[in-house]
TrEMBL record:
Listed PANTHER family: 5-NITROIMIDAZOLE ANTIBIOTICS RESISTANCE PROTEIN, NIMA-FAMILY-RELATED PROTEIN-RELATED, FLAVIN-NUCLEOTIDE-BINDING PROTEIN
Domain of life of the organism encoding this protein: Bacteria
Pfam families for the chain: Pyridox_ox_2
Lineage: Bacteria, Bacillati, Actinomycetota, Actinomycetes, Micrococcales
Gene3D superfamilies for this protein: Electron Transport, Fmn-binding Protein, Chain A (2.30.110.10)
Name of the featured protein: Flavin-nucleotide-binding protein
Amino acid sequence: MRELLVEGHVGIAIQDAGGDHAPTLSLVYRHPRKADYALDQPFTWNGVMTDLPLTALTRVRRGAHHQRTDRAALYDVIDAALYATLAIVRDDRPVALPVGIGRDGDDLLIHGSTGSDFFRRIAAGAPVSLTITHLMGLKYARSLFDSSMRYRCAVVHAVASVVPPEEKEAALLTLSEHLMPGRSADVRPMTAREIAATLVLRVPLTEASVKDNAGSLVEVDDDGEDRSVWAGMLPLRAVAGEPVTSAQTAAGVAVPDSVRRAAERVSAAGMS
């Protein structure tokens, strides 16, 4: 076992496999005062996309022991989200917009108008940064300095590719099924004109980071704070409200089962 560990940082513990096999690399956080903290999943250099590699863009530096490097953690964050914040640099200025998302295997699908300058720049190869955050709670400490948020967050860095015309309808249905599952069976099919007016982009989930401190509520015994001051967590979650029928809907039309199921799904998973 070899170690490349620096106090206060995530490092690597290398386990030689012997023979021609690639070594196994485990991510370890060397805590300044406590025992080393092994991150959840090791990864191997075997060419299989099962874990998230660390790069200059994806290595978490603050609270590094909360970083998750398993791809399953990334997909959990993505699949519980209805939208993400998509950012590019346009004319030397950062621009960020919320976009609906849907995962298709190891890619994320997003869409916008073919007339959008923002999306046209992404289609032309502008690098993107995409962020998803689930706010899970507010930590009330005994000082404002130590108070904080509890969240799960994913950040993706990529260059998107344009979904070709022959694949656009299927990609849009994938998006629809994530955002409004079952809705495509309730409404008319998309027209060729609508599909042509929509730009669909595929964002590879190759370079990404995940940070999860949602379950962290740690107090230090000898912090010197006044224990008569309340401290704890205020949990937060998204909950769907009662569906509101459009005034233009014909009288007597009931809320579809697909909408009821979508509301239950959002509330059960706390999707946001």
